[in-house]
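User: Quick one: structure for sequence A, then sequence B.

Assistant: Sequence A:
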Amino acid sequence: FAIPLVLVEMVINFYHWLVRPADEASRIANRLIEEAKQQMGQQERVALVTGGTSGIGREVALALAMAGYRLILPARQKEKALQVVEELERLSGNAKIDFIEADLMELGSVL
């Protein structure tokens, strides 16, 4: 399983975004979104984002949603996940976001 370079760049740049002023963060986020769109082309991309309900995972999920990716968010807490999915859809305009109720620490939950 190889992690796409664009995803690695997005995570690194979002870390920097978290510690930079808002105007620069916006510029970086917009650049990342445009790069992801260019790499995506016409082919639909699907991303499974672990930790997508909070923190950096949520920011990565938002950037991918804004770039048009179909998202799958595994989460333990159904209510929280539904709130995050609704928020991501509203902020990104992307309705292709789903969650799977799963505890990735439990083997039976992922088999």
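Sequence B:
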Amino acid sequence: TIQVTNSPPGQVEAFVANVSCGQCNLELDRDECDLAIRREEATYFVDGFSMDDLGDPHDEDGLCNEIRQAKVQGKAKDGRFLATLIELLPVEEAAEEPFYFSRVDVNDTP
């Protein structure tokens, strides 16, 4: 499998992080639902993707109802996360205990 992203030169490697609705699940203040990522101890709104890009946010396992784990690539800048890749992990593959950061090889595909 070939994975293509719009990663600029010098882009950080992909990592696994929690993604969800910033308002519903990640305690960010905003008037409407928006995609957010929690990386290590920091939580950011995301630029480059929307919750609708990742499925119906109001489904049973949607991002307004669940905190999901995803393979993510991008960087934090000016208090936001500029994403070049967000790939939700299947619910059954996610760890039982949520975690905030772990490195993966972006070229490592199942």
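The two ends are 9 Å apart (CA to CA). The mean pLDDT is 79.

User: Thanks, that's what I needed.
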